[in-house]
Amino acid sequence: MELVKPAFGLVFWMTVSFLIIMFLLKKFAWPVILKALDEREQSIAEALNSARKAKEEMASLKSDNEKLLQEARNQRDLILKEARDAKDSIINEAKGKATVEADRLRRIAREEIQNEKLAAITELKNQVANLSIEIAEKVIRQQLSTDDKQKALVNDLLKDVKMN
Asked: Per-domain residue ranges for the chain?
């Protein structure tokens, strides 16, 4: 039954190791990850602002076109029809371009965020694995540092083998 229950020292050192790893991650890894996410968020916000500005410019162009149409109403009916056709095609083209560009920027931003997130998670996993290996190595070295401890370990293993 003693093999199933962990010793107090093992639980204590595992807890200390875990707390050290959490402290190191909080101190060094999280600020970098949060900074990268904030930069992505700012770039997305800038892209959305530029799309909003383009929409405002389209609204401005639309009001300018309406003024031109008011002046054109005083002219021949043929010129009025041509001006309306030109206005509609310009607005539709500008809306189409703005929509396509906004969608493209959103898609690129999402892909970049996903890629950076995956890279950060992979790097974090690698660091945790390396730290775990180093901690395990230090614990094993400390436990087998003297001949008495090594002999006691061998005797315990031989007793287990004899019992089986």
From this structure: 8-163
Tell me how far CA of residue 83 lies from CA of 62, 70, 87, in angstroms: 12, 10, 6
For tokens 């700012």, the residue is 42
The answer to whether 21 and 128 have CB atoms below 8 angstroms apart is: yes
Nearest to 56 by CA among 1, 117, 98: 98
Q: What is the mean pLDDT of residues 87-108?
A: 93
Query: Rounded distance, CA 100 to CA 87, Å?
Result: 20
**CB of 58 within 8 A of CB of 134?**
no
Q: Which of 35-44, 49-58, 68-77, 124-133 has the lowest mean pLDDT?
A: 68-77
If you ran DSSP here, which 8-state letter would residue 58 be given? H
More confident site: 97 or 152: 97
